[in-house]
Amino acid sequence: MKQKRKVVLALGTERKSGRAILRGIARYASLHTPWVFETEPPFYGKYPYIVGEDRRARALTDLGDMGADGVIAFAVNKAQAEAFLSTGLPSVIVPVEDTVPGCCCVIEERYAVGLMAAEHLLNRGFKQFAYCGLNRTYWSRVREEGFAHRLNQVGYEPDVYCRDESSRQTSWGLEQRQMAMWLRSLPKPVGLMAFNDERAQQVLEAGKLADVRVPDEVAIVGVDDDDIICDLADPPLSSIAMNFDDVGYEAAHQLHLQMAGKKPSMWEIHQRPTHIVTRQSTDILAVEDKSVSTALRFIRSHAADMITVQDVVNAASVSRRLLERHFQRTLGRSVHKEIQRVHVERACELLLRTDWPLRQVAAQAGFSGSVHLGVAFKRVMKLTPQGYRDQSMSQNPGIS
């Protein structure tokens, strides 16, 4: 009997990203090839007197002794990624700093996450923005760049808070006070992006110390959609969901090719955002214009109903020409496009939370039928309703 391949998975399970990537790897193995897995290698425990990166570097020498045939690992820096590659084992690396020549790596699509966060906050009418990250973290830098890039395109500049490398050993108690001072100094209301959900939760706690209200004064969106963090936060955190499950599946496929003596069919596996899960932390409209604010609230309260521009005009009690002018000045889009955007947002929620057929989704999202839904959805989301559902389900297989 042919012996099963042994694959070492050094990804961690403390965050949703690691757990979801592991789930994608398991899905690939169950469909294509039986593997024996070593997760969070037990050889780490052999070196209790060595900590952090040194312990993992020392553990690399044990991979061959374990009889490992391949490895999918998280590398804290480029040097560590190169160390995995130096073992000669087929490898797929989740890099923090950059890709490694000759190694199949997971990278994040440039600008994509920050752009989605910026659009989410812009759509809620914010004109003041902030970003909270970590200077030393690659993911933080690339997400900040995307966030700032989109905002710069429409004339805004985010206020940025990043813990300095020199304060890496600073206690959370001290940093929380520093972050609270920063939050207190920001112009309000402000739309804030945190580079991940853990950081968003820290912003929430610092906000309580600073006595700023979320979402009324500071609306917060995180990244990863770690439901344990987001749902238990007070208030619950909006967050950007990522395609971690698909990343794991593709990482397993590329490793399988290498273990079969072939070259990877791709050297870069793209990690990207799929959608935003909106919770209470961004459930606000930051619009000072009363006619626009009234109109927006009417549109949102009728997200499930078929409404016309004239219905919105009647609710706002102003002329159509005046309302359209105020919409363009405040939001940069027409009343009709806002109605369509809110209906599509409602359809997205139904596609994720239900298994309804498209005609039922259309009826409950303010569309006259599935064809109308499909046209509007493709225009706004750049993919079909079914494509969106399939993509999201692969990322979140537990959704019913």
**Helix-strand pattern:** EHEHHEHEEHEHEHEHEHEHEEHHHHHHH
Q: What CATH architecture of the largest domain would you give?
A: 3-Layer(aba) Sandwich
Number of strands: 12
Number of helices: 17
Helix content: 40-55%
Structural class: alpha/beta
The backbone outline, from C-alpha atoms, is: globular
Unreliable segments of 5+ consecutive residues: 42-52, 395-400
CATH topology of the largest domain: Rossmann fold
Beta-strand content estimate: 15-25%
The mean pLDDT is 85
Overall radius of gyration: 23 Å
Q: Report the sheet with the most strands, covering strand number, pairing sense and barrel closure.
A: 6 strands, parallel
First-last Cα distance: 40 Å
What is the level 1 CATH name of the largest domain? Alpha Beta
Describe this structure in words.
- The chain is an alpha/beta fold and 400 residues long.
- It folds into three domains: 5-109 and 244-272, Rossmann fold (3-Layer(aba) Sandwich), CATH 3.40.50.2300; 112-242 and 276-282, Response regulator (Rossmann fold, 3-Layer(aba) Sandwich); 290-395, Arc Repressor Mutant, subunit A (Orthogonal Bundle), CATH 1.10.10.60.
- It is built from 17 helices and twelve strands.
- It has a six-stranded parallel sheet, with helices on both faces. Strands 7-6-8-9-10-12 form a six-stranded mixed sheet, sandwiched between helices.
- The protein is globular.
